[in-house]
Amino acid sequence: MATGTESLIRSAIDSLPSRVNIAEHIAPGQYAAEKERIFRRSWLTIGHTQELPHKGSYFVYDVPTFNYSLLVVRGQDDVVRVFHNICRHRGNKLVRDAAGTRPGFACNFHGWSYTTEGKLRLVTDENEFRDCDLSNLDLVPVTSEVWNTFIFVNFEEKPHCTLAEWLGDLYDKYDGYFEPQEMAAAYQTEVNTNWHLGMNGFSEGYHTLYLHKSTARDYQGGKRNPERHRPTIEVFERHYRYSAPGNPDKVFLPGEKVAAKFGRMIIPAFDFDCTGLPPGLNSAGHDFWAFDVVGFYPNFVMLMGNCWHNEMSFWPIDSGRTLVINHGWTYKPKNLGERISRSYFRARVRDVFREDLNTLEAQQMAVSSGAITEVVLSRQEMALRQHFVVTNRMMSEAK
Length: 399
Ligand code: FES
Ligand SMILES: [Fe+2]
What we know:
Helices cover 22% and strands 28% of the residues.
């Protein structure tokens, strides 16, 4: 029976299945093929250009799916590049710390060093290599592109499509949104779950009424929309987005009142002001819009409010284990009050995130037991239906 607001589903959905054989997707035998047919053939985001504020700024990003360590660096020429974080002498891991700013990179094993543009600059005791070919020993580049402030990589030898083609309809819808924000929270954890279950856990709002009943008890929906139906749901060729309904009748708790008094609302998102937002946000123009959820296939989901966004990446380690990275981004605080306000939301996001993770290990254990094979997906779980359609397509496309 329909209750509350009917979701506006702005996509062709007839071909999306409402029952999915989840046991097949999380089976250990699937994983080796998924790595090559899905993860190697996708554009994958690893961070933002704001994390590289100066010439010589760098960060290291480890991708457990392929055992890759990536060195992401802004060169002296201001160009952002991505390299494999490997010394070309004998394969030592070149940069060991997480992030910083340096004029170049020296290996701690035998002292070879490289420029911030990845050129081999110094071979120590070079004369002893006089019978060696030392040409072509710069750092190994990884294909990368910047979209807005996002840094994307692609591990195909020759990417079969551009980043613009990969992002499709979403490519030109978010200009200017990310630049004013800074990273305010960073968490990561390894979870005993399959990556599909991880992505699925963050790709629908159906669970919020139940799983988050104590942390986010009346943040969404309210009397007008008691089942918290998403006002708009859209699925694209690979990706999806939907809007989350705010609750204008929410009762503020004492801590929330303080946070709301000194800074902008983040979570709960009851600052309904959509002024100046790019066309991708609240694209159907709903009143009491809280935030959008945007998923980039295969492993990235973000919640996007009017002055904040929260990102989650799911990197499979093996078929039953996933690295989950959570980064929260917000407006830059101008004073102490805004800083204190932001801390409240940072703690809130962490609590809600932990509740979401809690179901994943239980699901993994239950489904991998074989006691059930199929799951059934509602209209509110349209993004999950789409996820498995794209998965099946990519698995059969690239044999
Ligand atoms: S492995 Fe880096 S200098 Fe030898
Ligand atoms: Fe959740």
